[in-house]
Amino acid sequence: MIGRVFSRNFTRTYKHSLNSHTIQESIIRSEYAVRGAIAMKAMEIERQMETGTKFGFDKITHLNIGNPQDLGQKPISFNREVLASCLVDDPERNRMIYSSDAVDRADHYLSHINHRAAGAYSDSTGIRVVMREVKDFIEKRDGVEVNEDNIYLTNGASEGITYMLRLLIKDENDGIMIPIPQYPIYSALITRFNGKQVPYYLDEETGWRMTYEELEKAYFEATAKGVNVKALTLINPGNPTGQVMSQEDLEKVIKFAHEKRIFLLADEVYQKNIYVDKEFCSVRKALHGLGAPYSNDVELASFHSLSKGLLGECGLRGGYMELHNVNEFAHAMAYKSKAVGLCSNIIGQIGVGLLVNPPTEESVSKEVYDLYKKEEQTIFDGLKHRANLITEKLNNIEGVSCNQVEGAMYAFPKIQLPRAYCHLANTLGIQPDLKYCLDILEKTGIMIVPGSGFGQEEGTFHFRITNLVNCSLEMERALDMIGEFTEDIMSQYRYKGVETVKLPHEPILDSEYQTI
Amino acid sequence: MIGRVFSRNFTRTYKHSLNSHTIQESIIRSEYAVRGAIAMKAMEIERQMETGTKFGFDKITHLNIGNPQDLGQKPISFNREVLASCLVDDPERNRMIYSSDAVDRADHYLSHINHRAAGAYSDSTGIRVVMREVKDFIEKRDGVEVNEDNIYLTNGASEGITYMLRLLIKDENDGIMIPIPQYPIYSALITRFNGKQVPYYLDEETGWRMTYEELEKAYFEATAKGVNVKALTLINPGNPTGQVMSQEDLEKVIKFAHEKRIFLLADEVYQKNIYVDKEFCSVRKALHGLGAPYSNDVELASFHSLSKGLLGECGLRGGYMELHNVNEFAHAMAYKSKAVGLCSNIIGQIGVGLLVNPPTEESVSKEVYDLYKKEEQTIFDGLKHRANLITEKLNNIEGVSCNQVEGAMYAFPKIQLPRAYCHLANTLGIQPDLKYCLDILEKTGIMIVPGSGFGQEEGTFHFRITNLVNCSLEMERALDMIGEFTEDIMSQYRYKGVETVKLPHEPILDSEYQTI
């Protein structure tokens, strides 16, 4: 992955009509850590490697982003055969190299599309047959009734999240409650839409639990400042924190939302990624369990995606959003937002069908079913093994502590950085955890993301690391390198007085770099 | 295509936190005609047909939207074989049913992607190898030098247009010049981002030409009202108007933009769709032709897409944007906007590679090349034939006049609606041309879009119709039906006094319907 590298000093002249003075502040201020300073630095290194500069490593290891196939995870064969058969609509020929079941499934989708055209725009909300499969999936998963008209097929979950935040934020007094730590799409979009972040802190001590008391505290602090709290985001299983929420805790959030009359945004893209003995419970199911007035009153948007789970089909950009208890007018506005982009890509839409309606023992041949299950299991086992490996290995590093990775694809360990190291970072004008991640990258080629990008309690430092390297040995090696590097830092700075820290010749980063 | 049908009376209670009082006015106000009232009405009809209601037609004919494959246009085989081979990465097996050239091309793309993973996120701006192909394409087409870092791969052209308008509109005084008639994504987004539309009128009398005088007039009228004109959009070939701009006219716009220091947005998605003896000239080429100071000063974003041309791959959602003479800071902001959605879908990205780097006589076998050319030619011939057919047939209808369709996929004829018919429409609270299109839809099942959605000189009425039905006979039949219907209207209302018009029992549409 090599991308654009921005010069550190942006042109500040008035030669251009589009410049830092003429672009909205809300865009300039919005940050997106996962693709931020660390990604920029990595690109710079890759460029330098291309032109012959030597580093202490051969390649960059991307432990910064939930991108499984970029780290060697294989796609599920059945799904890809279906998608390929949708692109080249020639069942007879396809049957020569793909399983008949895959070809039949492609036929099932194409037969519901005008002229069998995977290359046509669909209606803005999506292909009806896939929307129905999503409806069936939620009904079966949660024992509820779903209206297929409430389903919107999206380019990944992020598109749905974007639409909903845009609808929810009317003016700069509108606030959205987000967990801290959070996945930075929320902070980035709230800033972009000129709203207010209302952070509620997850409790690291109790495995990143969400408590009613903390929700109330955050809410009242915000309203006291005149913020109109419009919605609350929850991410379950947690990103970057990996906790799996209990139905009981979900019920508390629902009651809170009902009492305060706020909208719930449920980011549930990791629902298949649970590595401990806990069961995923959707907000939709918890709502139903509580019954009236909650079940028919609390407004909810739930998001799901092809990109995570066991498919890891990030590049296909497929996802869905289900709206529940949402006003018709708001539906019309969501529809209109979607219409400007015409529709989500059709391959991603069909991918969503495959996500929610996987082959079953009854629907396909034994051979196809067995292969599907085997591929899925291999992926799951790897994720689970590495989730445990990470927890264990990180806890063995001096100064690092990490909660059990229960779910999702990340660990979010706490790191106690020496005072002198923090001082050095501050003098350079960057967060200590950003410096730590930049240093690791330069030294080892490993990309991890600083906790400051996700939010953390003041005075604490963390980083996010994925469990996605598709080889346990390589994962182990990466963790060892992080361990060695960290111990080096510790021994180098632990006893150092703040005053003895020498600044490097040139600041490694200026503050503008960070806003990217 | 059956989608959500909204009830005509939206809930106005305060039960919901997200309602018509809590959503931004700019979202509520923004309209998108192509997917607006007509599409809603069609969905309603399709629903009713599903439940047994009889209409005077068997199916809806979608002449409302540039969606070729929905009307039977076939995809190009080579391209689909490449994409399928990217999804199922098994060259040996693929060679059994696809051409070796297609499999090789897939290998070319995959070999430039980490782990050959079409299912991984790419860098936010896109897959580097495709960005390079776009660079080569523009260089060859225009005889210019392009920096591949200035290319952004997008989900269709609409995504790039969205990013640029968002960057260009800082506050409600910022204006964007748009042609009238225009493609409504511009008006919809300008409204959504709370900017001002600065309309400049294309001259219907001279085949929808853009004149310097009109640009000046529009500009000065806007600035006199305190509008800060930031950018100018041009659509070439025109949508909905079908004109092909000359290099000379482009040079005038460029000089205008330079003088006024405004940003140019060049919507060039129909560059392959030219049916008369004119050559496409890009703004980039015209800029280069003018030389300094224009060529290195005028800021430009050009958009291109997979959806149109001869591929018609709307559903893949692929496109690109090239920024030229754009400030590094603005680049960084564009990059950041793109990063929140992570990346465009990879199949669409590879599709862009195939758009800009088609197989040549040298690069593939004769058989593959011949088939490619034949398929392309068949599509082109059909489009051209129907473009001429439309122009001719429409001009034969009483009250209808239509400029020659030189390019793109639409005709935008003027229609002289009888005074009594207009009165009836106004009494119903809708535009006369909307009523005309709704009536045609109800009577014939043909969907066309009213001119009011694209903008038109006050007091004139138009509609937009596509030339995409993949069968000339069917197209002819549709045009005949429109002709008959129009003549009915004429004879029914021509001599009618306004006072004699009887209102139907119930308004067919309320005004809220229109805002969708």
UniProtKB/TrEMBL annotation, chains A, B:
Its cofactor is pyridoxal 5'-phosphate. Residues 115-467 form the Aminotransferase class I/classII large domain. Signal peptide: none annotated. GO terms for molecular function: L-alanine:2-oxoglutarate aminotransferase activity; pyridoxal phosphate binding. Keywords: Aminotransferase, Pyridoxal phosphate, Transferase. Pfam families: Aminotran_1_2 (PF00155). Belongs to the class-I pyridoxal-phosphate-dependent aminotransferase family. Alanine aminotransferase subfamily. Homodimer. This is Aminotransferase class I/classII large domain-containing protein. It comes from Euplotes crassus.
